[in-house]
Amino acid sequence: MRVLGIDPGLTRCGVGVVDGSIGRPLSFVSAGVVRSAADDDLPVRLLGIEQGIDTWLDDYEPDAVAVERVFAQHNVSTVMGTAQASAVAITCAARRGISVAMHTPSEVKAAITGSGRAEKSQVQHMVARVLSLSAAPKPADAADAVALSICHIWRGGAQERVARAQQEFARKLELARQARGR
Questions:
Q1: Annotated catalytic, 68?
Q2: How do strand 12-19 and strand 2-7 relate by DSSP bridges?
């Protein structure tokens, strides 16, 4: 499975691609950031993020996209910008029919380090170690996106199978109800 992880942000939107599956070594593919200028108007910034994410989707053709779930912070304007960038990322993937998963920061930290309260430096160290890299991708937003990709490969596959099984069960239940109603 190839996963594009996205650490949403209005100024720097981290992106990272990892290939792999549960029980097998993971392969680092690429990481970087999609940037927008703080002095540009919001619509221009969001359009730039959309174009940047679309380029990553075109170039790397992921099977899934993992986006960091926006969490409440004290700075409302930061939360709003992060949420807007997150929505752009989700929309880009949905437009292409690529499955999207949301992972909380603590879920990613727990998957990578074993602790949901790990420091950013611990996550970066483990990203490098898991992928056999000499150092974590730079800048930190790119490393966070790679961590999201790893988390999704390790945890998301199981979550997707459960969701598909639930959908299939609901479909069969509805068919049985319809058959009884005839």
A1: yes
A2: antiparallel
Could you say which of 19, 119, 141, 168 is catalytic? 141
CA distance readout (Å), 70 to 6, 21, 46, 55, 108: 12, 26, 16, 23, 13
pTM here is 0.86
Tell me the per-residue pLDDT of 20-71, one tens digit each, with 9 for 90 and over.
Answer: 998 899 999 999 999 999 999 999 999 999 999 999 999 999 999 999 998 7
- Give the pLDDT confidence of 136-167 residue by residue, as tens digits: 999 999 999 999 999 999 997 666 666 667 77
Cβ 34 vs Cβ 53: under 8 Å? yes
Catalytic residue flag (residue 7) = yes
Q: Do residues 109 and 117 lie in contact, with contact meaning Cβ atoms separated by under 8 Å?
A: yes
Paired tokens of 56: 């990553």
Give whole-number Cα distances, 71 to 3, 79, 100, 168, 169, in Å: 22, 7, 17, 31, 32
> Which of the following is catalytic: 7, 58, 107, 144?
7
Instruction: Give the ranges where 96-156 is alpha helix by DSSP (H).
Output: 105-113, 120-130, 140-151
